[in-house]
Amino acid sequence: MTTNIESLLRTRLDPLDIVADETARTRSDNDLNPDWDNHPEQRPAAVLAPIIKRAGGWTMLFTERSVETPAHPGQISFPGGRVQASDTSAVDTALRETFEEVGIARRFIEPIGAWDRYDTITGFRVTPIVGLVDPGFELTLDPREVASVFEAPLDFLMNPANHEKREALWQGRTRYYYAIPWQGHNIWGATAGMIRALYERLHE
């Protein structure tokens, strides 16, 4: 599994030097809701999908947002956030935010590529960056933004049988979304949508 997934990641992701290409494919919270066309203006953001190279099997790290943070309180997400004027690229944004939120230093992370940008109904165009992370790092959580972190096996996340389609009422209408439950953690919404898009990039 490890050898195969690394080969797929290195050959099927977008090269880092074209991450900002405006022709790159964009996914959306509306992928499962084609009759919705009410996306607000999209502000640039970036996240890191940290793949930890554990000896017993590669995992992906997630954050549980603090309930005090104004940005998606209590939700499961990748470390990341808005692009700042001082950031040189989406990769720079993702690495900076990862260090600020969970304390993983850049020396442990090898950014290897990006996949489909993702538009959210909350007004962000998110560039997701895959980073391979060497074990040995120490976590230091920013409690203003992150309540906790956890890891889920990459082979579990890349199994489409674990990608549930759910529905909920929002603004008086039914919306559909992806959810990936893992040991009491509910990965859903944009984060689950990005995972689904990564699976499709690698395997379809």
Q: What is the H/E string?
A: HEEEEEHEEEEHEEEH
CATH topology: Nucleoside Triphosphate Pyrophosphohydrolase
What structural class is derived from the secondary structure elements?
alpha+beta
> Rounded to an integer, what's the Rg over CA atoms?
16 Å
- Portion in strands: 35-45%
Please write the CATH class name. Answer: Alpha Beta
Shape: globular
Contiguous uncertain segments of 5+ residues: none
Distance linking N and C termini: 17 Å
How many helices does DSSP assign? 4
Q: Strand count, sense and closure of the main sheet?
A: 9 strands, mixed
CATH superfamily: Nucleoside Triphosphate Pyrophosphohydrolase
Mean pLDDT: 91
CATH architecture: Alpha-Beta Complex
Number of domain modules: 1
Strands, count: 12
